[in-house]
Amino acid sequence: MNRVMLIGRLTAKPELRYTSSNVPFARFTVAVNRTFSNANGERETDFISTVIWRKQAENVCNYLDKGSLVSVEGRIQTGSYDDKDGNKRYTTDVVADSVEFLESKAQRQNNAYNTNNDYADNVSPYDYQSGNTPSVNVDNDPFADFGDSVSIDDNFLD
Question: Are strands 15-18 and 4-10 parallel, antiparallel or unpaired?
Answer without folding.
Answer: unpaired
